[in-house]
Amino acid sequence: MGNRICITIAAVALAAVTAVAQAQVTRNVYQRVLELRVNAGTDHEGTATAFTIDVDGREYLITAKHVVKDLKANNNFDVFMNGAWTPLTVKVFTCDDPIDIAVLIPPHQLTVDLPVSWEGNWGFGQEAYFLGFPHEMQIPGQGLNGPYPLALIKRGTISGSMVVDAQRKASRLLLDGYNNPGFSGGPIVYRDLYESGSTDMKVLGVVSGFYPEVVPVMKEHDIAAPAFAGAKAKSEPWRIWKRKKNGTYFEDVDNGTFVALNTGIVEGYGIAPAIDLIRQHPIGPEVKNLPGNDPGTLH
User: Fold this and answer.
1) How far is CA 266 from the centre of its chain?
2) CA distances (Å), 118 to each of 55, 115, 292, in order?
3) How far apart are CA 177 and CA 215, in angstroms?
C-alpha cells in the first residue's frame, strides 16, 4: 500500500454529481460507491470498493467476496469518510462459489436513497462503466458527496456473458476494459438503451478482477551470433536481438519464473444472485427518505 493519492478535479466531479441529462454516470450510482479498507494493520491489509443498493425498502452493501474473506473477528472493516478511515461493523453473507459477491448488512443507512435498478435490457457491444478506488486513488468529494470521496470511473464494452449456474441465475461478465487493484467490489453499470425517458444508470454486476495471461520472465543471454542461439530462440526468432550501440547479439531466455499480465478483460459477476441472497436475509437498515437526498445528514 502506498501513500494516498487524491485527484482534484472539482469541475468534473461537480458535473458528474449533478446528474444532468448528459452525464455519463448518474448520481443514483455515483453517490453510492464507497472505499473500503480491510484487515488494517495486518499482513492482509488492503483497499477495495463497495456500493449500496436498496432492496424492498432496505439498504445493503455489496462488494466482491474475495475482498472480505480474511476479515478479522466481528467483521470489522473501515470506510473512508470525512477525510479519514472510520470503523464499520457489518454482518456478512456470501454467494456460493464461484460467484465472487458478498452482501454486507450495515448497522445504519450509509448513502443516499436515490433509486437504482438492477432490472433492465442490455446487449453485447454496449458501453458499460465500472467505478472504484484503484491504488487508493480518489476524488475528494466532501460537499459534493456528503462525507465520502468520489470514485474513479472507467469505461468498457460488454464483451460477453457466460452462465455459471442457471438455477441461481449466476453469470460471469466480461468487459473490454482495464481493471486495476482496488476496483474489486465496485459496480458495473450501464444505461438501458431500450428504456425511453430515463438517463439513470442501472447495475449490471460486481467487479471481480481481470483475466490474466501468465507469461515467462526472460533475461538477456549474450551470444556471438544468431547461429549460436538456443533451440527456443531459433524456433522463435523474435527472441534474438542485436544491440545498436555495439553490434553484439543476445537472446531472450526464460529465467524460470512467471508473471501474470493484465489482458484488458475485466471479469465480474451479474448482480442477480446478490438480490436473491438479500431477499433470503431481509435485515438491512430501513431506507430513509432524506430531504434533498443529502448523505451528510446521516452522520
Assistant:
1) 9
2) 10, 10, 23
3) 20
Rounded CA-CA distance 52/288 in Å is 14
Using one digit for the tens of pLDDT, what is the confidence trace for 207-257?
A: 999 988 899 999 999 999 999 999 999 999 999 999 999 999 999 999 999
Residue 117 CA to residue 71 CA, distance in Å, equals 29
| Cβ atoms 187, 130 nearer than 8 A | yes
Cell numbers 444472485 correspond to 273
Same domain, residue pair 163 and 228: no
Are residues 266 and 245 located together in one domain of the fold? no
Are 206 and 237 part of one and the same domain?
no
Supply the DSSP symbol for 149.
Answer: P
Q: Quick check: 185 and 48 in contact, CB under 8 A?
A: yes
Q: Which residues contact 238 (CB under 8 A, 6 or more apart)?
A: none
Q: Is the pLDDT of residue 158 over 70?
A: yes
Question: Do 72 and 186 have their domain in common?
Answer: yes
pTM above 0.85, yes or no: no
